[in-house]
Write a structure and sequence with these properties.
Strand order of the largest sheet of chain A: 3-6-9-2-10
Structural class of chain A: alpha/beta
Number of domains of chain A: 2
Oligomer: heterodimer
Mean pLDDT of chain B: 79
Low-confidence stretches of chain A: 1-6
Structural class of chain B: alpha/beta
Helix content of chain A: 40-55%
Largest interface: A-B, 37 and 30 residues
CATH class of the largest domain in chain A: Alpha Beta
Number of strands of chain B: 20
CATH class of the largest domain in chain B: Alpha Beta
Number of helices of chain B: 25
Strand content of chain A: 15-25%
Largest sheet of chain B: 8 strands, mixed
Strand content of chain B: 15-25%
CATH topology of the largest domain in chain B: Rossmann fold
Number of helices of chain A: 11
Radius of gyration of chain A: 21 Å
Helix content of chain B: 40-55%
Distance between the termini of chain B: 52 Å
Number of strands of chain A: 10
CATH architecture of the largest domain in chain A: 3-Layer(aba) Sandwich
Chain lengths: 270, 696
């Protein structure tokens, strides 16, 4: 029985992703990268965590491997597994192993969604050892200097099940993300959504109004991403009311009362 | 068969039974005469509702019976039911006077019911409007209804008072719009400084007219002029909303035209309004009446505002004081912090070059001050003397006992006679059981060591384990047996199976159990002992099973004090604290079961589990102080609460130590969802059976 190793090809990001720095997060990322420290990004959904990682991968000219975590994610999904190809057993690296071998940036998005027993596999990677145990092959993969582990999560979830264990979180350098202040956010919405500044400002105002309702019927206010979606719809010729209703109001809530309030807010702005 | 009508004397007799059972100084004869002309169905209907209403308040029953002939002249049967029910509802919410008024206003009721009157009611728009105002932000504002007819909307800068009904526009939809516009204008008054700022003193500005006959006229002018100024401010930030207001008001009255340009400028402040106001008051004209007229009550608003400013200043100074003292930044006493970005949208503070993060309370206080004064007063930015910031040092809020504090929740209660809910009827308070003897549990465990061992064994067998499933089409790893077979098959030229993987499945039972323990006075003595021992064994069992579970006790005294005692929350471990609380489970007052069921169902629904189970440990039927809840009413309410729970996917089960209980238990819980116990040792064993039934 011949065993072959197949590693997925990893490519670097060719074009600069649009990213508007808010604070010193770029410098922090670079410092952590230089010192080989893993990074934890905290922040509400749609505030730019994923885009930031893409941007940094481009800036550092490293390939980026993104894994969206979910509660069925197993260790094998991350590390790799044997597959039968024809008459042979073939080992296929999982995304994490591939990233370690290639010295890429591995980004585990929404890490709290993953099962607790799966997360433990990243522990040796996230401390001074910087290695990944591939048990099924009896192999230890040492991470090269260019490898970096980045994870993200949204601390806004209220569920007790969605908490990150101290033994995991204390391995990371943590960076807080939040929605940018109005002027900056308007710039982002205008650039990303390709709309004029006035429309972008109104969308950001709408975002602010919905964020005031956090905890009063909404779990989260409208994210920058939702505002960009609305802007893109407006740019594509949809009337602002309809675009905001579809991209913001209905995306935030199913509750008829709440939808009524959100419609009122949309109408207040446009 | 249609039954014959009742005659006057028969009616009189039955009305006497219903209405004047206690004090018969009034005669039913006159009412009975009025009812004689109704048909038998209608007569019975009147008697039914008079009876139901008299159970709540005799006067309402009397009123219903008296007005019945007129009511039937304008309403059909369903309308009559709705009318009587609306009267009872009004009594529950606002008391006897409101109920009488509603019942007497038959035409109004009929018109509203037929949708003919363009009325918008505050209760219809309240939720949506409250959220809308919160969305607009600034300081939190509450909404309140003013029951007086013809009331004008106004605000004291913390509460927006709106009329209970609006009917000034031709459609109810338009009137609902008017509610929104009124609330927005009042919100804007608090947001854009109608009540003054650090530079402008509204009280002083109005002083020339104070205590003169011209004062009301001055306030009317102030209100109209501010409406112009505020609309321009709203338009700058919320153009859609401003367009809505403009559409509702139509063109400005001609007298206002000369002022509109000045007041609509974006840098116009209250000072401009006051300058224009002097000019207007110099003339003799009265202010024009606007469609969205609001009232300004400077005295009330300034009083509330002054108290708030004092409080906010204190909170902010304390917070800044604590910050300066901490983090190795002692800082000289005279060092002040500079507010950054003080545009009213967000406040940030810096010390030297560093931005400071204030606690949320302090941030809100700073924002509130900014809104009231247009600036954060400099005296708040220096330390306020010794003492650290304590978020708990707020003056409001008594603690612990019910009665001094607002209820944690209010719940509706089912009235079977009305076949309707009484809204927000029960006031619920939640508190921890004060811990008792910490050794009690250990002692029980010692005494029942054999039984507990047995329970543990039984439950460990039930526990879900991870299982590997072989020969799957996909999975985490290769199933070597399957692979070897497949290669052998392949080599011998046979078709190979594609099911070559092993997959781990978790036998997740995913069950959350809530135990609701009767702490009523009747459990005193051996029932209470039995309950506590059962709880110990229950915990032992559930610990070995690994399911999420919580234990709450319930008791209370009338609808205004339904108490829920926390013994173990879902996220709490079965540790010494919980054990000490179990020891302290004691007999308290009464058993209003419906509200307890509703509350614990709510808590249970927050648990992320596939199966949710509500288990009641009780010693008898629902009961509460006074005659009302005892008997049929309480049983029907509890039954209704359990039905609601079932609709939300919560299964309920009752374990009771009431040997006479079988009849009502079946009615409340359903045929096979209860057991009557004679022996405490059976309880944990019973639980095992319930679990097996749920997960199989």
């Amino acid at each position: 029985m011949k065993i072959e190793t197949v590693a997925p090809q990893l490519a670097t990001i060719a074009e600069e992703p649009y990213y508007q720095a808010i604070g010193d997060e770029t410098a922090l990322f670079e410092a952590a990268y230089a010192r080989r420290l893993p990074l934890l990004l905290k922040g509400p959904t749609g505030c730019g965590k994923t885009r930031f990682v893409e941007y940094m991968a481009w800036r550092l000219k490293r390939p980026l491997v993104t894994v969206a975590c979910h509660d069925d994610l197993t260790t094998a999904d991350l590390v790799g597994r044997y597959l039968i190809v024809g008459n042979q057993t073939t080992w296929v690296d999982g995304p994490l192993t591939a990233a370690v071998r290639a010295g890429a940036i591995c980004y585990l998005d929404e890490i709290v969604e993953a099962r607790k027993d799966t997360i433990v596999v990243i522990h040796p990677l996230a401390d001074a050892r910087r290695m990944l145990a591939v048990d099924k092959r009896g192999e230890m993969v040492m991470a090269p200097a260019s490898f970096m582990l980045v994870v993200s999560y949204n601390p806004g979830y209220q569920s007790v099940l969605k908490e990150i264990k101290p033994s995991t979180r204390q391995r990371f350098v943590a960076v807080d993300f939040d929605y940018p202040e109005a002027a900056v956010e308007a710039g982002i919405v205008a650039t990303e959504g390709k709309v004029d500044v006035d429309t972008a400002r109104r969308l950001v105002k709408l975002g602010e109004l919905t964020r005031n309702l956090k905890g009063a019927g909404l779990d989260e206010g409208a994210s920058t991403r939702l505002l960009v979606h609305a802007a893109q719809l407006i740019g594509a010729g949809i009337a602002p009311h309809a675009a905001c209703t579809a991209a913001v109001a209905r995306a935030l809530s199913d509750d008829p009362d709440m939808n009524g309030t959100l419609d009122d807010l949309v109408r207040a702005v446009f | 068969m249609t039954q014959r009508r009742l005659f006057g004397d028969e009616l009189g007799q039955r009305l006497d039974e219903v209405l004047f059972a206690s004090h018969s100084h009034r005669s039913a004869t006159r009412i009975a005469e009025g009812l004689e002309d109704l048909n038998r169905d209608q007569q019975e209907r009147v008697l039914h509702w008079a009876n139901v209403a008299a159970g709540t308040y005799a006067e309402i029953g009397y009123q219903i019976a008296t007005l019945a002939p007129q009511a039937f002249a304008v309403l059909d049967d369903a309308g009559f039911d709705a009318w009587a029910l609306a009267g009872l509802d009004a009594f529950d919410r606002q008391g006897g006077r409101a109920a009488m008024e509603l019942l007497r206003d038959l035409d109004g009721f009929r018109a509203t019911r037929a949708g003919a009157l363009p009325v918008a009611k505050f209760s219809e728009v309240e939720t949506r409007l409250a959220r809308f105002i919160q969305g607009l932000s600034g300081r939190p504002l509450s909404l309140s209804a003013d029951p007086d007819a013809g009331a004008t909307a106004w605000t004291d800068s913390e509460t927006i008072h709106l009329p209970a009904r609006l009917a000034s526009l031709p459609h109810s939809e338009a009137n609902r719009g008017l509610y929104k516009v009124l609330a927005v204008i009042l919100w804007a008054q608090t947001r854009y400084g109608t009540f003054g700022s650090a530079l402008i003193d509204l009280h002083a500005a109005l002083a020339p007219w104070l205590d003169t006959v011209d004062y009301p006229r001055a306030l009317r002018w102030l209100s109209a002029l501010e409406a112009v100024r505020l609309e321009a401010r709203i338009a700058a930030e919320l153009p859609g909303l401003a367009a809505e207001i403009a559409a509702l008001r139509g063109p400005w009255p001609i007298v206002l035209d000369p002022m509109v340009v000045r007041l609509s400028s974006l840098d116009a402040t209250l000072a401009d309004t006051l300058a224009v106001l002097s000019g207007c008051m110099a003339g003799s004209e009265d202010a024009p009446l606007l469609p969205h007229q609001v009232r300004i009550d400077p005295a009330a608003a300034l009083r509330v505002r002054a108290a708030r400013i004092a409080h906010d200043k204190q909170v902010l100074s304390r917070a800044i004081n604590a910050l300066k003292g901490s983090g190795g930044r002692p800082g000289p006493r005279d060092e002040t912090m500079a507010p950054l970005a003080a545009d009213g949208a967000a406040v940030e503070f810096s010390l030297g070059d560093e931005a400071l993060a204030l606690p949320p309370e302090a941030r809100a206080a700073a924002q509130s001050l900014l809104q009231d004064l247009g600036e954060v007063p400099p005296e708040c930015l220096v330390p306020a003397g010794p003492g650290a910031w304590q978020p708990t040092e707020r003056s409001d809020g008594g603690e612990g006992v019910a009665g001094q504090r607002e209820p944690d929740r209010r719940y509706d209660e089912w009235d079977y006679r009305r076949k309707a809910y009484r809204k927000d009827w029960c006031h619920l308070y939640e508190a921890d059981v004060a811990p008792g003897d910490a050794d009690y549990v250990a002692e029980v465990k010692r005494r029942h060591a054999g039984l507990i061992r047995q329970i543990r064994r039984r439950f460990e067998m039930l526990r879900g384990e991870d299982r590997m499933l072989g020969r799957q089409a996909e999975g985490e790893e290769l199933d070597l047996d399957a692979a070897v077979d497949a290669i052998a098959d392949c080599n011998s030229g046979m078709e190979t199976s594609e099911r070559l993987f092993r997959r781990r499945t978790r036998n997740e039972r995913s069950l959350a159990a809530m135990f609701m323990v009767d702490m009523s006075g009747s459990t005193k003595g051996w029932v209470n002992d039995a309950e506590r021992e059962s709880l110990v064994m229950l915990c032992e069992a559930l610990e070995s099973l690994g399911d999420a579970y919580a234990i709450y006790g319930f008791s209370g005294w009338t609808r205004t004090r339904s108490d829920i005692y926390r013994i173990k929350r879902f996220d709490e471990a079965y540790g010494t604290m919980v054990q000490a609380r179990i020891a302290a489970v004691a007999a308290k007052d009464y058993t209003r079961m419906g509200v307890a069921t509703r509350h614990l169902t709510q808590l249970l629904l927050r648990q992320p589990a596939r199966h949710r189970l509500l288990v009641t440990l009780s010693d008898g039927r629902p009961d509460d102080y006074g005659d009302e809840y005892r008997g049929h009413y309480g049983i029907e309410d509890t039954r209704r609460a359990l039905q609601e729970a079932r609709q939300k996917g919560v299964r309920s089960y009752c374990i009771t130590i009431d040997r006479q209980g079988a009849d009502y238990l079946a009615h409340m819980y359903g045929a096979s969802h209860y057991s009557v116990l004679h022996d405490v040792k059976k309880l944990p064993l019973k639980i095992a059976d319930i679990y097996r039934r749920l997960v199989s």
